[in-house]
């Protein structure tokens, strides 16, 4: 029988968008036996403090550099210890994951990642909206507007928006004038629907703002929303109210798939 403790490892855990109940079961189980947790700012504090044992060292990384963060994780890691870097939403979206992992690799500390519910999904869920709709759009682009971080070639908002798919814009709430300008340049109409959700899934703090490309800036200004917001521009927005809708083939009685045989033959697919 192997009685050796597990080798030193750091877990990167997605805490979800804010509601502590939206962390995965795996993430919560790890927190419940954690020796050390370094969490990324106020958005994930609740999950960390709610599920961790009283003996766990819990620290906020908001004033730390990337080097200080990885040094702290390396210091805490050891055989048999559960050390967690707790991040908002999913760790692989705008989370500096690889920068940290490379430093842990160099220190020969094992790494595992537990995915999380991204704010893009939480924002659409709280507004009862769908990211995709049959024959409207079947594609979602997760992106941001160029700020201090430059966008790679071919990824300007105007180019991405030219596909007229669902666009989820992170880190961009202070850049609404740019969004309006670039989407119009890509052929989106003034009255194209826009959804902004501030603190999606946060009990008592979530705010849902609906508007159009032309007026969303003014609506967000009036609601004093200038941080922690997801912006979604999509031809699917508002579909709940549409009188006619193309039905998803998955639920079409004439469509055979792996788990169900069609009730009647269908000419399509
Ligand atoms: N990894 C995170 C994103 C981190 S970048 C994720 O998967 O969601 C931070 C940006 O995410 C914010 O500027 C905002 O655009 C968005 N964000 C994070 N949490 C949010 C929430 N609860 N509600 C709305 N937007 C949120």
Automatic annotation (TrEMBL):
It is an enzyme of class 2 (transferase). InterPro entries: 4pyrrol_Mease (IPR000878), 4pyrrol_Methylase_sf (IPR035996), 4pyrrole_Mease_sub1 (IPR014777), 4pyrrole_Mease_sub2 (IPR014776), Cbl_synth_CobM/CibF (IPR006362), Siro_Cobalamin_biosynth (IPR050161), Uropor_MeTrfase_CS (IPR003043). Its EC number is 2.1.1.133. It comes from the Bacteria. Keywords: Cobalamin biosynthesis, Methyltransferase, S-adenosyl-L-methionine, Transferase. The keyword Nucleus does not apply. GO terms for biological process: methylation. PROSITE patterns: SUMT_1, SUMT_2. Residues 9-216 form the Tetrapyrrole methylase domain. GO terms for molecular function: precorrin-4 C11-methyltransferase activity. Pathway: Cofactor biosynthesis; adenosylcobalamin biosynthesis. NCBIfam families: cobM_cbiF. Belongs to the precorrin methyltransferase family. This is Precorrin-4 C(11)-methyltransferase. It comes from Methylomonas defluvii.
